[in-house]
Specification:
493 residues; 3-stranded mixed β-sheet; homodimer; mainly alpha; Neurolysin, domain 3
Chain lengths: 493, 493
């Protein structure tokens, strides 16, 4: 009876989530420019209804009343709902209200002050946010019985613990600090032998779009349950039965739009293949940010930057763009490595250093070992250590670079690199079982690869914690060596 | 205090209406084909939340508590809310549930059986619907103190009464039965002198779309608060700050897409120019179906088929399609008259006869003077009388032609022709005040015309009943002579 009530509630919540997902995707793709204010009003009101309905006190009673006489899958569904309910209800309403005001003000300030590179002006707002984040971490820690930083990560990746991640990141960091100069030197040697040939030319948006759709379909995107549009920032949104992915086009650079499409296709495959019977329960949703990122990076990096993939893909590109490039033409672009200040522009070798820098700093910030006022120096010191670059005169590209901290999202950054490592570990596990995976890629045959992923990842929804899911899928805990081995193989050095 | 509660409620209802409007428009334009089932689930769930929140018992108390110490406009807002609340709450829930089941079943049956021209198979379902409509009319009549058919019309056009409409329709019918043969003869004479020149050629969808956008913008559509897409059936949807209109294109027939764009632009101008401060109250919404249709027909027929308009429009068409047609080329197409069985394909001369036929029959059906089993003969008799055509062997194009009756929408049909008459009456009133309106059209200057409409119609929202709004805008009650005079002038004979 209680289970039935929870099931009915799930359908209501799913309807509101559906509306919010489609309205959100629509806002970035098809909305008239003047529609923004009312859209924001409507979405905020719907989000309020969703929160109120998802946190209603009687849900706690329904959850408590369960436990006996349920099947194993139903028990898993209630367990995951309880986890979500606890995470949603562990902050007092008055705190959430205070935090929302501070966060919105800080985000708005960040937008204008970052453009002016004005750290001093932004500092008080970020200090305000930081005080609230420390309060939030304490509240969550108390409710969940976790350490404060772990309690923050728990929102994004259930089961992720700093005690497990820190040694893995330390190993990765040590590897990369040694490996990056060698990879750059190896790249230089290769480019000296074969100078980079620009993939220039002007490629009409229509043809690029057709190429993207052909790649999406080949890789497994179900075009009867999703679509490709244009937006300023690429994203994957919508709902599992109607996944909206986007990219942006430059006629002078087809590769950036295409790699964007592959990345979002990775997210989309996960959404499209979640267990449908549980779509209105947390159990039927994607596990978390790190696993989601592992799916997008699996398609973009493990598949989409694999030389075997390009043996199949180059003729597809030629059919759509009319250019007969060789592997030697394309791979130097696809595997280009470069030190840079900006995380989102980074390649797969340098990206983890950006993330580890933030992971280390945000733990110190949350614990109070580091104060916000000292952040520019701390950032610069690590940036010089890890990437040999300085941001001391350029806070806009230093601690003001990302929206995460200004919007009070602490504990999120590790997900990116955990995703990259999990993708490499999944590829390694998959190729142990399917040694011909590279041959499959070279033929454009994604069926065995997707079969493995459907079985091990997609169909599992939120049945397991993030570390459990990885261990069940690959047979072992998170292990940096798969990712470092992948980099070593791909980037030489 | 109660007013404030109603105001807050309005914002919540507006958010749900916003979601439903955008999800509905999205479904017909951008949704992936496989997304339909979940979309229907989500929309039905959101519609349920909207209905529950709009009919909550405490609203009745809040409305009753008001009346004193409110400004005149606030009183009007509460009055209109009370009217809507009464209409929404006058049917018992168990009745609505029974009716919803019967209606959905009947609509589904209609779709399959109309395609097979199977009246006998469909009859029992329509009889079931009819019994419920009679019950509904009695319930509404009781709650509103109106005659049963008036109580049904009240949902679509508040204030419309059969006692006022029937004599006007009778006058129109008498005119048309006499006028139609003469208009057809006059058309034949003209075509004998100047044979019809086909507007043939193939016009790329992109260029037709640009032409449509140029026309929309010129006529007053605010492209920062709306957009033009493609759908199977043209519609105007979305929300006032983001109006979604659609058309469909045939490369061999630019005129049908363009006239569709003009029609929907008429609906859109009304939505875009409603009073913004009241957008979350019934007061701020469009008055009803007849007034809405008067706005679309104003743009499509009074403006868009006016020869003066085409003096301006032909060069615009030439710029986009590259064809230098003359008025003599285009007007015979724009003013083509032809007897036909299908209402939605009818021209402005024959359309009212289709509507009056349905208006007469549905009153007899609601009152019980006519039984559903006798409908094919009754339909055929009137069709022969009004349009000299028979449907006795073709019920699919007779009483099974429209979705309205299978979906229990009785009292809606008169709105179409009331809208056409109101548009003619508005144009006549406007040209009395602005005798140069035709010259304005010939210059593509819509400012005075739209100024009059904004002032008299759009800005009024739902402040007045339908007949009051017309009388305040034009200085007199509904009067058939403006429409008949318009037809006489345009179609000669």
């Amino acid at each position: 009876m209680s289970f039935q009530k929870l099931d009915q509630l799930g359908h209501k919540l799913e309807a509101l989530e559906h509306a919010l997902a489609i309205l959100g995707a629509d806002e970035a793709t098809h909305m008239a420019v003047g529609g923004g204010e009312k859209r924001a009003e409507a979405m905020s009101s719907l989000a309020g209804m969703l929160h109120a309905q998802a946190t209603a006190p009687e849900i706690g009673d329904w959850i408590a009343a369960e436990a006996e006489q349920l099947g194993e899958e139903q028990q898993a569904a209630v367990r995951e709902l309880r986890r979500q309910y606890t995470n949603l209800t562990c902050l007092p309403v008055e705190f959430v209200e205070r935090q929302t005001v501070a966060r919105m003000r800080s985000e708005q300030l960040w937008r204008s002050l970052r453009a002016r590179n004005d750290w001093a002006g932004f500092l008080p707002a970020l200090e305000g946010v930081m005080a609230l984040v420390r309060e939030e971490a304490a509240l969550r820690a108390d409710a969940l019985g976790l350490a404060p930083y772990d309690a923050l990560m728990e929102q994004y990746d259930p089961g992720n613990r700093a005690a497990d991640i820190t040694p893995v990141f330390a190993e990765l960091k040590a590897f990369l600090k040694d490996f990056l100069p060698r990879a750059l030197a190896a790249q230089e040697t290769r480019l000296a032998r074969h100078p980079l040939k620009p993939l220039s030319g002007s490629y009409a948006v229509d043809r690029q779009r057709e190429l993207g759709l052909a790649m999406m379909a080949a890789v497994g995107f179900d075009l009867t349950h999703g679509s490709l549009s244009v937006s300023h920032h690429p994203f994957c949104g919508g709902v599992p039965t109607d996944v909206r992915i986007t990219t942006r086009y430059k006629t002078s650079d087809f590769l950036s739009a295409l790699m964007g499409v592959l990345h979002e296709t990775g997210h989309a495959l996960y959404e499209q293949n979640l267990p449908k019977a549980w779509s209105h329960w947390p159990l039927g949703k994607a596990r978390g940010m790190a696993v989601h990122e592992s799916q997008s990076l699996f398609v973009e990096k493990q598949i989409g930057r694999n030389p075997a993939f390009w043996r199949w893909a180059l003729p597809v590109v030629e059919r759509h763009l009319g250019e007969a490039w060789s592997l030697d033409d394309i791979l130097p672009h696809v595997h280009h490595v470069e030190r840079g200040l900006i995380r989102v522009d980074a390649d797969e070798v340098t990206y983890p250093l950006h993330v580890i820098l933030r992971y280390e700093l945000e733990q110190e910030l949350v614990s109070g070992r580091l104060e916000v006022a000292d952040l520019p120096e701390a950032w610069d010191a690590r940036m010089r250590d890890y990437l040999d670059l300085s941001t001391i005169d350029n806070p806009a590209d230093g601690p003001m670079q990302d929206v995460h901290w200004p919007s009070a999202a602490f504990g999120y950054f590790p997900s990116y690199t955990l995703g990259a490592m999990m993708a490499a570990q999944q590829w390694a596990a998959l190729t142990r079982e399917h040694p011909s995976a590279d041959d499959d890629l070279a033929k454009g045959d994604f069926s065995s690869i997707n079969g493995w992923r459907r079985d091990r990842i997609w169909s599992q929804g939120s049945r397991w914690s993030t570390p459990e899911l990885l261990e069940r899928a690959t047979g072992e805990k998170l292990n940096a060596s798969y990712f470092t081995e992948h980099l070593r193989k791909r980037y030489g050095g």
